[in-house]
Amino acid sequence: MSLKTMKNLRSVLNKLTNPISQQQGFVRASILLDWHLIVGERFANFCQPEKISFPLERRTGGRLTLKTSSAFAVEISHLETIVVERINRYFGYKAVDKLLIKNGRITPRTIKKQPQPQVSPDQLSSIEKMVEGIENSALRDALIELGKGVYDQQRQTKPSSA
Fold first, then answer.
1. CB count, 10 Å around CB of 155?
2. What are the tens digits of pLDDT across the range 12-67?
3. Which of 76, 88, 104, 132 could form a disulfide with 67, with the two C-beta atoms 3.0–4.6 Å apart?
4. What is the rounded distance in angstroms from the CA atom of residue 99 to the CA atom of residue 88?
């Protein structure tokens, strides 16, 4: 799936889910879609947003109800300030002041594994030559993966000769 297709899909999903999510107190449906990005994969596996309650006629200083298992509730309560900070950073303003932690069953998020980019040995060699002067191994590896993705994307968008 291309990046453009994913952006279009996200736009359609937001249009469909925003009215429903606003009824549940969510400022935007994207908090549901991006929860794993807001709080990180570890937290997203153990807690899920349920609703945001705001003071009368305001969209700031809300209380986010989080559903989590009783085993994780203590940990999340100790990390409340960090979670609230991440949520507010995501929204770009002080949307949430407090968490209300509620025990419940968490629906595991399914992560679809991305297929590995297909590149020829010559293309891989070319990419590795381009990044050979980079000393930071993590950066070098990330650039190699990026290069593979670029070559793979070019391969996929070329018109097939039939």
1. 13
2. 665 655 555 454 444 556 677 788 888 888 888 889 988 888 888 777 888 888 99
3. 104
4. 12
The total number of structural domains that make up the chain:
2
Q: What percent of the chain has pLDDT over 70?
A: 75
Q: How would you class 108 by CB atoms within 10 Å of its CB: exposed for 0-12, middle for 13-18, buried for 19 or more?
A: exposed
Note whether 54 and 69 are within 8 A (CB): no
What pLDDT shows up at residue 89? 92
Let me know whether 91 and 65 are in one domain: yes
CA 68 vs. chain centroid, Å, equals 19
Q: Is residue 5 part of a domain?
A: no
SS3 101: strand
How far is residue 36 from each of residues 60, 86, 87, 110, 121, measured CA to CA in Å? 22, 11, 11, 11, 35
